[in-house]
Write a structure and sequence with these properties.
There is one protein chain. With 430 residues, this protein is of the alpha/beta class. It folds into two domains: 220 residues, Rossmann fold (3-Layer(aba) Sandwich); 186 residues, Rossmann fold. The chain contains 18 helices and 14 strands. The protein has a seven-stranded parallel beta sheet, with helices on both faces. Strands 10-11-9-8-12-13-14 form a seven-stranded parallel beta sheet, sandwiched between helices. Helix 11 links the parallel strand 8 and strand 9.
Length: 430
């Protein structure tokens, strides 16, 4: 076995030395609603569920986006009767997964990357295969799993040029960690090349799992209720908005109200805790708002309906035929357009979309979305799509076809991990 590099020994010593303050840190984060106070033990590797009998696959995604991209894999594993323990690191991801995980799968919070916490987690769950998403490189977790001969697979793997430069400055550590992976399934050829240069021994390009994401569900009862409250009003959704973008949406509504006096604007902030702030901005604009987090429905007098809850985007994507995707009028990098596109929405976005360049390029080539750059653009585009139903339907259809055409990553990913599943099923690891 290759000797541990000095940099890893330093990392392990520092993380192990920080264990006495870990509990205090977790308590402080829980006071800020960054941790689930009732499940803090999971962050120390203490299991709150029993391990199921038989082969077990461990699947990990850092937060909501990564966890959702893994859902098709989790569902495919569950359909083959594999038990799955799913870990993530955020409260929001846990809440979303609680609603969407299939039978036979269990969620736990990822333990902090402290050797004793990692050992406690692995001692209990004893996974036969570990599948990590995107760029989850936790040194102790990776090394401890490798020492136990648990096959490690990195799926939907990405390695940006910026991240590559950082890892290149720690070449011995990077090589030591990336050679622990049995298989890396990269999103693109560029990601694959950078992973190989960092030491990954087996790399295959399978594409982006987010292109195969299944739209979030919606309760039939909630959908029927929302459609009843909306009635025949024209409606549009500003989805996953960031600070500043809600002001664009409010201003667009104010400008359109003269032409469409019964217009309903739904704002679903990326961070629901900002609901009260958005309500205040709505009031300052002389408009009437209501917050879903308070149990309110949009009535006939509601101008701005603030969808400040978690796990209901499937509902709002289904009631709004026009969707503006946030994080794109500010320098955030955009939000994933695949889910609303698959549900038939006409899409609008700003210029800052570098987090999803491939899918937005496909949408642009197909004429499946509108790009806007200002509140004026947003109001004008909304006016066009509300007024011209044929144009709205055409751009929506083109968007749906574009995102469907670039799929296939799930099929390729499952093909690559099939040998590991087979050997796990037979009781023999690769």
């Amino acid at each position: 076995m290759k000797a541990e590099p000095f940099s890893y020994r330093v990392y392990r010593a520092l993380t192990d030395g920080a264990r006495p303050i870990a509990h205090m840190m977790l308590l402080e984060r829980s006071r800020r609603n960054k941790e689930d106070r009732t499940r803090l033990g999971e962050r120390r590797g203490e299991a709150t569920r029993s391990r199921p009998s038989g082969p077990l696959v461990w699947v990990h995604g850092a937060s909501v986006g990564e966890s959702l991209s893994l859902l098709p894999i989790i569902e495919a594993l569950a359909a083959q009767d594999y038990s799955v323990v799913v870990t993530s690191g955020t409260v929001t991801s846990a809440q979303v997964l609680a609603r969407r995980l299939p039978e036979g799968s269990t969620h736990q919070y990822m333990p902090l990357d402290v050797s004793s916490y990692v050992d406690r987690f692995l001692d209990h769950w004893r996974p036969d295969l570990a599948i990590f998403a995107e760029s989850e490189i936790w040194p102790n977790m990776i090394c401890q799993a490798h020492r136990r001969n648990i096959p490690l697979v990195l799926v939907n793997a990405r390695m940006s040029p910026r991240s590559f430069r950082r890892w290149s400055q720690m070449r011995s550590l990077a090589h030591y960690l990336f050679t622990r992976f049995d298989l890396c399934l990269a999103q693109s050829q560029g990601d694959a090349e950078r992973l190989v240069r960092l030491g990954a021994p087996r790399v295959t390009v399978t594409g982006n799992l987010k292109f195969d994401s299944v739209p979030p569900p919606a309760s039939p009862a909630a959908l029927a209720s929302m459609n009843e409250f909306i009635g025949g009003r024209p409606v549009w959704l500003a989805a996953s908005t960031h600070a500043g973008e809600e002001l664009f949406a409010i201003e667009a509504h104010r400008r359109l109200a003269a032409t469409y006096p019964d217009l309903l604007t739904i704002i679903a902030p990326r961070h629901p805790e900002r609901g009260r702030e958005i309500f205040a901005a709505t009031a300052r604009a002389g408009l009437r708002g209501s917050q879903r987090s308070l149990g309110l429905q949009p009535d006939s007098a509601t101008d701005i309906y603030i969808a400040d809850t978690i796990g209901e985007m499937g509902l709002f994507y289904r009631v709004a035929p026009i969707v503006f995707l946030g994080g794109s009028l500010v320098a955030h990098g955009g939000q994933n357009p695949i889910e609303p596109a698959k549900l038939g929405a006409a899409l609008i976005h700003g210029p800052h979309i570098h987090n999803f360049t491939e899918v937005y390029a496909a949408l642009e080539q197909a004429g499946g979305a509108y790009q806007i750059n200002s509140a004026d653009d947003l109001a004008a585009t909304l006016d066009h799509l509300i007024h011209d139903g044929d144009a709205r339907d055409e751009v929506a259809e083109r968007g749906t076809n574009a995102v469907t055409a670039i799929g296939g990553a799930l099929r390729r990913t499952m093909h690559e991990i099939a040998p590991y599943l087979l050997k796990m099923h037979l009781g023999n690891r690769p």
